[in-house]
Design brief:
Four copies of one chain form a homotetramer.
Chain A (H helix, E strand, L loop, with lengths): L18 H11 L6 E5 L5 H9 L2 E6 L2 H13 L6 E5 L2 H4 L6 E6 L6 H11 E11 L2 H13 L5 E13 L2 E6 L3 E7 L2
The structure holds S-adenosyl-L-homocysteine (SAH) (4 copies).
The site of one S-adenosyl-L-homocysteine has 25 residues of chain D, from α2 and β2.
Keywords (chains A, B, C, D): Cobalamin biosynthesis, Methyltransferase, S-adenosyl-L-methionine, Transferase
Protein name (chains A, B, C, D): Probable cobalt-precorrin-6B C(15)-methyltransferase (decarboxylating)
GO molecular function (chains A, B, C, D): cobalt-precorrin-6B C5-methyltransferase activity; protein methyltransferase activity
Chain lengths: 187, 187, 187, 187
């Protein structure tokens, strides 16, 4: 496992996705060593590093060149990356050239979520899994509605985590912001 | 109502107790214009200002002289304070000289919670209410056990609030830390 | 204060709005004894009873006749209701005949939220407050967007409450479902 | 992955530990195919089944014979169990005969938590991990204090999950009760 603080960070790139969320995504993904994974909006590389350890192949995309750079640095820090391809492009564009996806993570989409899901749906293998994370309330509704319109039976889980600081005077709980995880599986 | 940002703050004094928690405390207190209220650990004055507006008399205590000062400033800012007495002392000590309490708020106690509750119990009117807030997990257990041992039927509510930032790109929810509110009423 | 369990309930009517949420709504409403309040979607009467105690006049509306009946029973149980008018109609319709609103609570709207907010906006006094509660994620987005389009500066707070059962073996926390509270004030 | 509803349940046995919590425990455990795992208080077998799939060897203990029976049924349902030993005994007693533990999960302890942790500490391999789940506030404090006194640097994470029901009228979020996860690693 990685600790949140293990990751190299940059002020201009969001992430890494926090530990509990990474754990839940990994679990829901049912990842296996032969899976082809796309991480759309790889940010700091929190999700990319987790799947690099467990999947066959990972393709990580981000519009922000700095995100690609910092994801690359984190992969290197953890001795990972041999099975990872980094693409600095818009997800909706980069996905056009990717086929046979087993697991598609959408951790960032700008205003392209519907487009990205259209292409992901097309490129996803049968039994393939889509996992979308959201920090905006709007994204939750948009993701669920789009997944429904594509014929999926989507699920949504919202997670509120707080972490303790174990002080001399007692245990002080500090909250993380709520994160929603929307998931769907292709028939 | 006050907004959280309405209060003058100081780096060295915790508080103010956040809006939702102030609202719940006010509601649970059933405060009326004849009530005598003690605010033990008044900090920034978040609770003191609320009760100054609604109670007959408020006595606010804090070991930290800066807390007394900043509470005083906030009362002044809101045009309140005529019915408020500020005491710079340990709660366990100051409470010895106070009688006929209708509502006792314990928002800070250091390691004196049991002592403070012993004295509060003695000085509390029949039908009087005790309200304790906790940011430490340990304080929750200590408060409930002490209230039970004093013969109360204590209640505990834990509140996790997140507030939205309404941005152009959507609604981003930001979490406050969890707060527990323990309450009891004298027979 | 009322306990959640104080209210008469019916299987076919949702509510009452839980204690912490009632407390926060009351606080945000800044209700005073001269205020004219509309409770659109009064359900079990949880909100209606609170405002009946504190406002000048309350008009409570529900499309469900059983909600009107049970709200009436709860008002009677608490010795309230002299200043309450109950209307069994769609909110969007009933609101057309109501003027000079100081506080509008929308606790239920079916698919009429935008219509209801259009009329509320028209009938709301200057400095009047709108408070919308939501259990659906979609309602949060719809409410915020509509309030923005009407020229308001809306706020949203999400509240996760858990209540303790104080057992011999310890304190067991039981969660309520998350509730969002959207608010806005007319200039 | 298992869904919560995949597990056979019994009214008299708590569990299964919910999906998000199982995911986080798995992640924090860093389980590998050679690990020896103890699940103290296996209940319905939620945790036992997860580790049976991923660890070398699992020993599951419960004082309640019905928990042992239902854990056995769930293992069978999922085609697992060849590497699992079930013991119907008190954890503090059964652990005395177990050596070389890599991962110790304590999901139930009655009033024996301190005793159980004393023995777990003794039997845990270097680099071994202890994971305790708590539904009682008291257990959080007890676990952290005991782990500290045994020389660990314990961590605590509290998780509040809500799951969506995707309805025609929108997304309704339903809360699970809060769960705390306390972890520590032997040097
Ligand atoms: N349309 C799009 N295509 C590709 N990347 C996008 C995008 N819209 C937003 N993003 C990227 O999505 C990222 C979201 S932050 C992701 C954090 C990441 N999961 C981690 O664990 O580190 C940002 O870096 C942003 O640049
Ligand atoms: N034994 C004690 N007696 C009096 N005050 C105490 C105390 N132990 C801690 N305190 C005070 O308790 C305060 C807790 S912070 C309270 C914040 C306050 N409710 C607000 O809304 O602003 C601190 O200012 C601290 O100095
Ligand atoms: N368009 C509409 N006009 C009026 N009432 C409506 C409505 N759409 C839904 N409702 C009503 O809104 C209610 C929501 S439940 C409200 C619970 C209430 N706040 C309490 O504390 O008891 C339901 O009773 C439903 O019948
Ligand atoms: N001292 C002790 N030794 C062993 N089991 C115990 C115990 N005290 C409590 N338990 C057991 O701990 C269990 C807690 S419920 C555990 C649920 C389980 N993690 C799951 O996923 O299904 C109960 O079945 C209870 O019988």
């Amino acid at each position: 496992m990685f600790k949140d603080t293990d990751f190299i960070k940059s002020c201009d790139v969001p992430g890494p996705t926090k530990e509990a969320i990474r754990a839940i995504i990994l679990y829901k993904s049912d990842v296996s060593p032969t899976d082809k994974v796309v991480d759309c909006g790889c940010g700091t590389g929190g999700i990319t590093c987790e799947f690099a350890k467990r999947a066959g192949e990972v393709i990580s995309i981000d519009t922000n060149p700095e995100a690609i750079e910092i994801t690359s640095k984190n992969l290197e820090k953890f001795g990972l990356g041999d099975n990872v391809k980094l693409i600095n492009d818009d997800g909706a564009n980069a996905l056009k050239d990717i086929d046979g996806i087993d697991i598609a993570i959408v951790g960032g989409s700008g205003r392209q979520l519907e487009n990205i899901l259209d292409i992901v749906h097309e490129k996803l293998n049968s039994k393939g899994r889509i996992i979308i994370t959201a920090i905006l309330v709007d994204t939750k509704v948009e993701a669920i509605n789009k997944l429904k319109s594509l014929g999926y039976n989507p699920q949504i889980m919202e997670v509120n985590v707080s972490n303790g600081r174990v002080l001399d005077r007692g245990i002080l709980m500090i909250s993380e912001n709520p994160i929603a995880i929307m998931t769907a599986q292709k028939r």
